[in-house]
Specification:
The complex is a heterotrimer.
Chain A (H helix, E strand, L loop, with lengths): L9 H22 L32 H36 L4 H15 L2 H12 L3 H28 L2 H8 L4 H12 L1 H24 L11 H8 L8 H28 L8
Helix pairs in contact in A: 1-2, 1-10, 2-3, 2-5, 2-8, 3-5, 4-5, 5-7, 5-8, 8-9, 8-10, 9-10
Chain B lengths: L1 H28 L4 H6 L5 H11 L5 H13 L13 H36 L4 H15 L2 H15 L15 H35 L2 H8 L4 H38 L5 H11 L2 H29 L1 H5 L3
Chain C lengths: L2 H21 L4 E6 L14 H7 L8 E3 L5 E3 L2 E6 L5 E6 L13 H12 L14 E8 L2 E6 L6 H4 L26 E7 L3 E6 L14 E6 L3 H10 L4 E2 L17 E15 L10 H9 L3 H9 L4 E2 L22 H10 L6 E7 L3 H16 L2 E7 L4 H9 L5 E2 L1 E3 L20 H12 L3 H18 L2 E14 L2 E2 L16 E2 L2
The chains are: A mainly alpha, B mainly alpha, C alpha+beta.
Chain lengths: 277, 316, 497
Amino acid sequence: MSASTRKRPLGLIAGLVLTGLLLAVALLSLVWTPASPTKMQILLKLKPPLVAGLLGTDQYGRDIASLLMVGAWNSLSIAFLSVLIGAGVGTALGLACAIKRAGIFATLVLRGCDVLFAIPPILSAMMLGAFIGPGRFTAIIAIGVFMIPVFTRIAFAAASRIWARDYIMAARACGKGAARISIEHVAPNIATPILVQVTIQLGLAILTEAGLSFLGLGLPPPAPTWGRMLAEAQTFLRPAPWLALLPGLAIALSVLGFNLIGDGFRDLLDPKAETGR
Amino acid sequence: MIGLVLRRLAGLVLTLVAVSALIFAVMNILPGDAAAIMLGTSASEDTLAALRSELGLDRPVVWRYLAWIAGALHGDFGRSYTYGVPVSELIGERLSLTLPLAGIALVLSVLVSVPLGVAAAARRRGIIDGLATLFAQMSVAMPAFWVAILLIILFSVQGGWLPAGGFPGWQVGFWPALKALILPSVALALPQAGVLTRVTRGAVLDVMHEDFARTARAKGISRRVTLWRHVLPNAAGPIVTVLGLQFTFLVAGAVLIENVFSLPGLGRLAYQALAQRDIVVMQAVVLLLSGLVIVVNFLVDLLQMRLDPRLRATPA
Amino acid sequence: MKIPGLVLSLALAISSLTAPAEAAPRTDIVLGMGIEPAGLDPTIAAPVAIGQVTWQNVFEGLVTIDRDGKIRPQLAESWEISPDGLTYTFKLRQNVAFHDGSAFDSGVAKAALDRARGAQSVNPQKRFFEAVASIDTPDPQTLVLHLSRPAGSLLYWLGWPSSVIVHPKTADSNKTEPVGTGPFVFDRWVKGDRVELKRNPNYWDKSANIALDKAVFRFIADPQAQSAALVSGDVDAFPEFGAPELMSSFESDDRLTTAIGNTELKVVAGMNNAQKPFTDKRVREALMRALDRTTIIDGAWSALGTPIGSHYTPNDRAYVDLTNVYPYDPEKAKSLLKEAGYGDGLSFTIKVPQMSYATRTAEIMQTMFAEVGVTLAIEPTEFPAKWVQDVFKNRDYDMTIVAHAEPMDIDIYARDPYYFNYRNTAFDVVMTKVEATADPAEQDKLYVEAQKILAEDVPALFLFVMPKLGVWDRKLQGLWVNEPIPSNVLSEVHWQE
């Protein structure tokens, strides 16, 4: 049977719709929310969905729909910035390592990646959180740093293949410097795997941010985050189980959106490698 | 072959040393003082100084690192500041929970994902394939701690069938102890199962297109037998690799899951040790966890060489 | 018409047959705690969880503190204080033995106190013994403390967990294997999970009716799991249940009973009094008036908890309710701020530990302050490590919020250094007088004065006392409802069928 039967990229479309919705909600939250996400009405606390507000109220009587909307912005902005750091630094390192594959620099960087890879990210984030205190900056750095090795390895592997090509030899012969070749010839040719990885890492960044917030290492209150909403919901599972359902659903759908886009991209760009990680 | 293994082993030791130095450095520049935490807010300066010297905290950092390494080589990881017992004893007790937890989660995820992945690949674009893909996508996207909370709502708060947390210890009997681990291990296994389902499906599909699989079918061997006897063993390489890579996530997930279920495992120990600035415990735990990750990855490499028929065929 | 009589006598006969089996009450208890103790020696580390397992169960002091907060004799059966308050003569009990068989006498008591006050001491409350100049042991049953200055609270302090009597032989191993004189003997500690105690068959106090043979302390941090353990019967009692919002769920359970009492945990928002704008009393008063304590307790702790107007709890001797000194009045708060020159607004940061009472209260304070034009930025600060470093030690903060756990610690506002950076000579004088007199009535008067000074000067925003949320099996008797000192005293606990 033939593997190249055409199929419509349903997953990609679903992913784009989900992520588009998420982006729209996040951007909308900057200018409008149904209610103020910080306004407490203790008398209206722990009301189920539709009784008070669209999605109910939390333990302080705040509107959950509004909290989730602002949470979307917080979650997305941290995810984007940390992946930007990870992809930027990681790709640069990978490109640099590919210039001289067995050099001291490359060996040190790749070994460093091994070390970073070996420490479970949640533990290093915990230590980092204890070090600089929780906050937006901590979250972005902790997640970003953890992303670096992935991009370094991918960029290194892809760039190494490019360096072996004829036209690079030609460029070399023209007397172009290694740095210039990296930027002009190598970087554009490794953009595809990096981009695919970026979408996948975005989903992972949202998950990690939620985990950090869940442990109290994310954004400080009153900034709403999905992870902290889940953590706080834990003691209200009996009287108000919806508190724990909605933020989790928001996280899962966002991650799903990015993953579907990542897979769809990969299928489109490289039809043979239809599955895999 | 042996040379390669030896070189990988040397790299492994080097990585471990680097990890230990990194952890030690980080733990020592963290703000917070174990002595001040233990003695509370009424302690005077001279009392704090007395405790610091008792714990050896007044010695230079480098001296403490070297002393720690020297001890570790003899299997002595020092004494916990807060518990006052040897760290190795403390870790041993906690491993009796974390290892079974991770083990059950691993077994569960393999039991679910491998048959599902194979079935999905067997009838590509069929209903099972669609369901498997949906399952894989959803379970990868759901945060494990949310799954944990959902399980608690369903099985403890509403149903009352399984404990919402805590661990009675193995001494109360196998079944009550195992019961306490069911929900945590399911929560831990789910994301792994998602990843593994996708990988299994992909690997099986790849192998199915190879010549020997087609030959087997052409010889009249049934589809089922071809799949399980011929295709799956050859697809095991990528599955095992991913299993190893996922180990990091399993360990990291355990830290969160143990906190959700308040299980006295290694992850919770690390969490508490960090809060108490119990440096000795923290560095031993992190070293152990990262050591495990490194060693498992190493073993996966070796196993992969054995499993992959092409690698096996090449002379050493 | 004789049938009912027959039925009755039959029923009686049956019940008398089965009664012995039913009536034999249980002699074991599983008691839940939210926090595992760090070591089991209260004389070398501060966490209250240590005392909550060991104090009065394993370890005993010269004196003890009862459920009403009163001082009672224990290892010392009586004492005399010289009129100048400088000599304390204790008559010690005879025939008291430690769990390992070692005898208790004045030499042991002296060694224990010397260990607590010596140069090498790591006792968290070493300051208790500062006034003690020397200790004499004229005979095995007599212990004499010579003081360099009067210390009116010394006797009370000797009842604390950090002042228990340990034997010099076992002092160093008490951290992992505590050996005391109490009614229960340490059995084992499964770290991260439980501590098991068993009855001391040779307990010295034959008049004490110890009903339990075995006591297990289980450590369950998550309130959801605590609740599940109670409902399933895995745990018989949670004297300090972790989540007020779950208390109402026990009402429908016929097997359990709840008891809401007071603790010594004073939730107080401390301010850096040496730093603007908190140097201005008008600002402090305005901030106090901007807060509605009832709503705070409602939102942060499910309306369980008692509002306070000073650094003092209803458990404490000579308590006066001072919540009406500066009641909730946002208009007055605004005008005070305006008067102080902050009519256009004021903003500062609060360093908040991660405990839920603190984060919730801070979030509500943030909203209430906003109504009077004060912008409060919340900075999560890891407790204890970073909080102790930043707030307590370096005093690098504007405002913070924490529950002060130590009983009768109103003197912290006279301590220098202390993180409030508060200086008030009038208050210092009152605190000195408390120590200078040994007359309880005089001391009570002084404590009232001290409470009033603080309530009016508001060096910190006094919010509420955390409730002691007790949940236990209906048949269980003898647990403390209030908590004048953090503890889980088991000596009077018994099952009643």
